Recover the amino acids of this structure.
């Protein structure tokens, strides 16, 4: 294949399989070591398991199955998204406003507080600008009155 000897091809396949095995071990350690009390632990685990997806693609290429690698390349992200979406709509009470009505009220309150702070800042800046302008106008008027 490609003018490469059988011994070199076996060596390349072995190296690719070792790399994919190391990636799988790293991902396994990452999934096991992640804090279970983390707010979005499911999403973090899905993200870590993306490493396993890449390792699977490398392994399929190493064993000479590029079609399976291509199929896996397209299906793995779809599956990860489906799992995250199902968890969000089914059990994620921390982030989902439908399952946690307090979340929507809190976010609306935060938005209103932010808007009020922004309005206050703009009004304060306008008042400072107006006070600066009015003091300059008064100074100009007093100079004009003194010159007459």
């Amino acid at each position: 294949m490609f003018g490469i000897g059988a011994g070199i091809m076996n060596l390349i396949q072995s190296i690719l399989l070792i790399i994919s095995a190391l990636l799988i071990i790293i991902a396994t350690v990452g999934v096991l070591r992640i804090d279970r009390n983390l707010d979005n632990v499911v999403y973090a685990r899905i993200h870590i398991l993306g490493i396993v997806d890449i390792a699977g693609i490398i392994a399929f290429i190493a064993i000479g199955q590029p079609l399976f690698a291509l199929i896996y390349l397209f299906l793995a992200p779809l599956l990860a998204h489906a799992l995250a979406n199902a968890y969000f709509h089914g059990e994620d009470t921390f982030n989902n406003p439908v399952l946690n009505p307090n979340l929507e009220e809190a976010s609306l309150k935060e938005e209103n507080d932010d808007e009020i702070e922004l309005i206050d800042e703009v009004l304060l800046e306008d008042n400072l600008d107006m006070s600066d302008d009015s003091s300059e106008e008064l100074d100009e008027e007093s100079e004009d009155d003194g010159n007459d």
User: Anything to note?
Assistant: DSSP finds five helices and no strands in the chain.
